[in-house]
Specification:
CATH topology of the largest domain: Jelly Rolls
Largest sheet: 9 strands, antiparallel
Number of domains: 2
Structural class: mainly beta
CATH architecture of the largest domain: Sandwich
Number of strands: 22
Strand content: 35-45%
Bound molecules: zinc ion
Radius of gyration: 20 Å
CATH superfamily of the largest domain: Jelly Rolls
Helix content: 10-25%
Oligomer: single chain
Length: 327
């Protein structure tokens, strides 16, 4: 049956980001990455997503015009070995000119039961840039549901919330049940499970242009907060860089790496798929079939199953992710 196997490796799949206006957003996505974004405050670029709230279209190549969710459903050979009924990851760039709400996400079990079969949300942040003096919120200090409920009721936000100073190159792992907020002055790349379930604890008493406040979800938050977690004091990356690659995170949902390219760099692609996002610089990416694509900061693409090694060249930094080895 060898003659039925495709003669060439599948090409890299480039995606058109989906943008979301947010009251806390800015203009950095246009200014820094050159994205053609809508007017007004734009907070989120969904670079690799098949989520129904922002499904990316394929940009060029054999599958031009298809959504990533179409490929997952109709061309699953591109993701050979990946299980599940939906593309599992979501890669975003967030431009926070103002603070995001203080929020927490459920795990898979809670989301499946209470959110219509949705996935839970484990996420992580790579800080692309931060204004001097910027902090973010990761973790809370209450040791029980009762204590947290009292802190929320009394508005003791400074006692409750753990703030950490940040700088470019920091990395934070946000487990389900971790209270968190990205604060104004932060530009991050977020790798997360493909989920949009957010429980808002506190929104800085902000009022939207229409005069209303965004809803809070206090009961759900009290349900899902992990009261045993120890909040971090720093996002400093301590993992060593080996041949340009730094392992940032490994968890049951994904592995995330930072890849520094200076000249030539070949990435093995043994996974069901590999997500690549260029966050700095420019260069090119060549797939196993030898097709070369120009890439630059803001490019998001997938190396599908069987694409072969990905040859990168230029001067650039990427954040890459894939399913964990044991999945
Ligand atoms: Zn979040």
């Amino acid at each position: 049956m060898a003659d039925t196997i495709a003669a060439t490796n599948p090409d890299l799949i480039f995606l058109r980001p989906v943008f979301h206006e947010k009251i806390w957003g800015g203009r950095e996505l246009a200014d820094r990455f050159g994205y053609d974004i809508p007017d007004g405050p734009v907070g989120e670029c969904w670079g690799i997503s098949a989520h129904p709230n922002g499904d990316c279209l394929v940009d060029g190549g054999e599958f031009e015009g298809s959504y990533l969710s179409d490929l997952w459903r109709d061309h699953h050979e591109l993701f050979a070995g990946a299980e599940g009924d939906r593309f599992p990851l979501l890669i975003k760039i967030l431009d926070a000119r103002d603070n995001l709400s203080v929020q927490v996400h459920p795990d898979d079990a809670y989301a499946a039961e209470h959110e219509n079969g949705s996935l839970g949300k484990r996420e992580c942040w790579y800080v692309i840039d931060a204004k001097p003096g910027t902090q973010i919120i990761v973790g809370q200090r209450a040791k029980s549901r009762e204590e947290l409920a009292a802190m929320i009721a009394d508005g003791r936000w400074d006692d409750m919330l753990n703030k950490v100073p940040i700088k470019a190159g920091d990395f934070f792992r946000i487990e389900p049940g971790t209270m968190h907020a990205i604060m104004g002055g932060t530009l991050i790349l977020e790798t997360q499970q493909s989920s949009d379930v957010t429980y808002r604890v506190y929104d800085f008493d902000r009022v939207q242009p229409d005069g209303t406040k965004r809803p809070l979800h206090i009961q759900q938050s009290l349900d899902v907060v992990d009261y045993d977690q120890i909040p971090p004091t720093s996002g400093e990356v301590t993992a060593p860089e080996a041949d340009g690659v730094t392992e940032l995170m490994s968890c049951p949902n994904f592995d995330v790496e930072r890849v520094r390219v200076s000249g030539e760099k070949t990435l093995a692609q043994p996974w069901p798929f590999l997500c690549l996002s260029v966050i700095e610089g420019e260069g090119s990416a060549r797939d196993g079939a030898g097709v070369e694509h120009a890439v630059k900061a803001g490019s998001h693409f997938l190396a599908p199953a069987g694409s072969g090694d990905v040859a990168l060249s230029g001067e650039m930094m990427l954040i890459c992710s894939h399913l964990p080895s044991n999945s």
